[in-house]
């Protein structure tokens, strides 16, 4: 007789990543609950998303991080809580921890991480103050609570890292008359992962005792390649050659400090409005629009500096503290970088 599937609550369910976690949870047969602020939103796109959840057997629960009672009620319905809230709510997850403790029945909490390892990264400003410090503090709060946890590390999301063929500040492939910007020598190994696969690996690990109180490293082996290798693959697919412009560490740091950068505004052309919104919500980008705004490019570059210059995607997993998702779940048929690039042709 098959063991009973754990009940999973997803907080941040309608976000860029959250919707994939919800879909994976339902697809893998878990009774799935999605915490949403409004079960009948006026926005047509969000309403359609919630309807798709319900068609998939997902139960909608009304609540938010500012309503303690709603959090406790939602937590009582679940065995596992997975948070995919955006970076502006990272610190607010302490409220979720309090609710989980009060509910008393949750067997695993997966806080919203899905990026650089808060305890390992040497990322420079502005990303350190804006995001990394909050994530590290949240980890300490999780550990102090005594609630069993799993942290999820990922490389670049496909929808962020690949549309520009690995270029940190581009969201479309290079054209014939435009040079490709490469941070450093282009030989640092970089991990990329499809958002749907993040959802699948996270759900699989959330109830797995092998991942309890450890970091789950989601880095599918076929999706780890250098920027030079990624560009060479794209050149093979398109039959074109692209000039490279390399920025050394000093040049990248000068750019990060704000030289020749613009703050994000309605007419920003680096990314589309849709991509900007998704990046800010779920992909380690945060800004203050009203007081002392941080240049959007400098945030992206500080992440790129950690990955491409400091090679933070190149490491051996400490088996006492972490597990490799690909080793735990070798049967997962993940989407490859090659698959994604074919979509761009």
Automatic annotation (TrEMBL):
<keyword id="KW-0560">Oxidoreductase</keyword>
<dbReference type="InterPro" id="IPR045312">
    <property type="entry name" value="PCBER-like"/>
</dbReference>
<dbReference type="InterPro" id="IPR036291">
    <property type="entry name" value="NAD(P)-bd_dom_sf"/>
</dbReference>
<protein>
    <recommendedName>
        <fullName>NmrA-like domain-containing protein</fullName>
    </recommendedName>
</protein>
<dbReference type="GO" id="GO:0016491">
    <property type="term" value="F:oxidoreductase activity"/>
</dbReference>
<dbReference type="InterPro" id="IPR050608">
    <property type="entry name" value="NmrA-type/Isoflavone_red_sf"/>
</dbReference>
<dbReference type="Pfam" id="PF05368">
    <property type="entry name" value="NmrA"/>
</dbReference>
<keyword id="KW-0521">NADP</keyword>
<feature type="domain" description="NmrA-like">
    <location>
        <begin position="4"/>
        <end position="341"/>
    </location>
</feature>
<dbReference type="InterPro" id="IPR008030">
    <property type="entry name" value="NmrA-like"/>
</dbReference>
